[in-house]
Write a structure and sequence with these properties.
globular
Length: 223
């Protein structure tokens, strides 16, 4: 595994909406309280896996931030000792995720980070070794790294800063991000890491998660 770039630190940013608005596609399987609890459990698990990944990398080379407009998530992030990036009200519309991440990219670039890794907070079971492999990927030569989801969404994106293209989250966003990176003169690398392919968006995803981790809905008191 190659070390993170010595040219500067990297920032991992996790976008998080308020748990009360999370996982609406699971409404046929879980009530609002259970959906909120699941979102929090997945977020906490993601942070735990990320911290384990950072233990595999040179100390101080990668830091963790969360971009959110949620007072609840903001308090949790501060209690965890993570960096907090505030969303603006304009970033809560149809293109809110991409807009929030544009804010995060600008925030990170302004503070001298050399690269940004975007990681969703609802991955089913990210392995620290896979996360460390992604976070340590060499970006020299103008590379950008994408980890596609099973449905061709973007389950992780690593870009140099300042990022020369706009984020395009949505249906088949891995394809859109690859095209945007190429158009901006970068060399996109598709890195299909097994443990980063599955997130929890649909009832089918939830069934797979609970088959492997039946305790997940109990971690934050979901029922």
């Amino acid at each position: 595994m190659s070390a993170a770039s010595p040219a500067g630190k990297r920032l991992v940013v996790i976008p998080m909406k308020d748990p009360s608005r999370a996982k609406t596609r699971l409404g046929t399987a879980l009530d609002a309280n259970a959906r909120a609890a699941l979102a929090l459990a997945l977020f906490n698990a993601t942070v735990t896996h990320l911290r384990a990944a950072l233990d595999l990398l040179p100390e101080g080379q990668v830091e963790i931030a969360v971009v959110t407009s949620s007072p609840l998530i903001s308090r949790l992030v501060q209690a965890m000792g993570l960096q907090l990036i505030a969303e603006t009200p304009a970033e809560t519309g149809a293109d809110g995720l991409s807009a929030a991440l544009e804010t995060a990219a600008g925030w990170a670039a302004a503070r001298g980070y050399a690269a940004l890794c975007i990681l969703p907070g609802d991955l089913a079971a990210p392995e620290p070794a896979d996360l460390a492999r992604l976070l340590s990927h060499d970006l020299s030569g103008g590379q950008a790294v994408l980890c596609p989801a099973s449905d061709l969404g973007t389950n992780a994106l690593l870009v140099p800063l300042p990022c020369p293209f706009r984020f395009r989250y949505g249906v088949k966003s891995a394809v859109a991000h690859r095209q945007a990176a190429e158009a901006a003169g970068l060399c996109p690398v598709m890195l299909p890491l097994d443990s980063l392919r599955a997130d929890v968006d649909t009832v089918e995803d939830l069934g797979h998660l609970l088959a492997q981790q039946p305790q997940m809905l109990m971690r934050e008191g979901a029922r």
